[in-house]
């Protein structure tokens, strides 16, 4: 039995939930983080010294960092699938790795303040300058993603793969904000296709909180 700690209001937990659903895995999930607490308890910190979510336990293996967990699940449980989400070809694999790291190190920090201000900050306490800065940083990144997806149905190769998960979760969060955005035909087409997947139920159809 796989065990997952984390609340589904977290973008990083949503990545893992979606990945597990795509692979047909049974996961025992425990709400943690935010008002659920648990993450600063000694038992949790022994497994995840960062005190953050998500945390995945597969037998004696404990993993944190959401994109690492997605990679692990795809490699460990998706290799025998007719269309494995973990690329076997090295060029495809590390192209997927590149985009997954880009999501975590570049896109997520750019959009984070707009999300925190517009969704998790009471209206009277919001700082519009932080929202505006996020919009300024996100626009060229979304345009870069749109150019990459021109003529593509997936981030890497010709089929659904591990890189689609974190990027689509990021787009889900950005598209859920009450903001005007530029027309992004390729991103919108790609995202709509992913949102229609059965594995994305409860993830890409979830409201932000």
Q: How confident overall, as mean pLDDT? A: 97
Low-confidence stretches: none
- Strand order across the largest sheet: 2-1-3-4
Task: Summarize the main sheet.
Answer: 4 strands, mixed
CATH topology of the largest domain: Glutathione S-transferase Yfyf (Class Pi), Chain A, domain 2
**End-to-end distance, in Å?**
28 Å
| CATH class category name of the largest domain | Mainly Alpha
Fraction of residues in helix: 40-55%
Structural class: alpha+beta
Spell out the helices and strands N to C: EHEHEEHHHHH
Per DSSP E runs of 2 or more residues, the count of β-strands stands at 4
Cα radius of gyration in angstroms: 17 Å
Fraction of residues in β-strands? 5-15%
Given the structure, what is the number of helices? 7
**C-alpha geometry:** globular
Q: Per CATH, which architecture of the largest domain?
A: Up-down Bundle
Question: How many separate structural domains?
Answer: 2
């Amino acid at each position: 039995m796989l065990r997952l700690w984390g609340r589904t209001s977290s973008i990083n937990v949503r990545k893992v939930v979606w990945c597990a659903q795509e692979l047909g895995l049974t996961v025992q999930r425990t709400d943690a983080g935010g008002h659920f607490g648990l993450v600063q308890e000694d038992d949790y910190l022994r497994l995840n010294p960062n005190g953050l979510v998500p945390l995945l336990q597969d037998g004696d293996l404990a993993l944190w960092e959401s994109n690492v967990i997605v990679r692990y699940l795809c490699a460990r449980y998706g290799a025998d699938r007719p269309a494995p989400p973990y690329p076997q070809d090295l060029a495809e694999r590390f192209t997927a790795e590149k985009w997954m790291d880009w999501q975590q190190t570049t896109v997520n920090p750019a959009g984070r303040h707009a999300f925190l201000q517009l969704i998790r900050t009471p209206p009277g306490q919001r700082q519009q300058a932080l929202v505006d800065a996020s919009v300024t940083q996100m626009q060229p990144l979304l345009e870069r993603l749109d150019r990459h997806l021109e003529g593509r149905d997936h981030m890497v190769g010709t089929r659904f793969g591990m890189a689609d998960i974190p990027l689509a979760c990021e787009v889900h969060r950005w598209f859920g904000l009450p903001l005007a955005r530029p027309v992004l035909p390729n991103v919108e087409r790609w995202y709509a296709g992913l949102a229609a997947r059965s594995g994305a139920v409860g993830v890409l159809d979830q409201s932000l909180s």
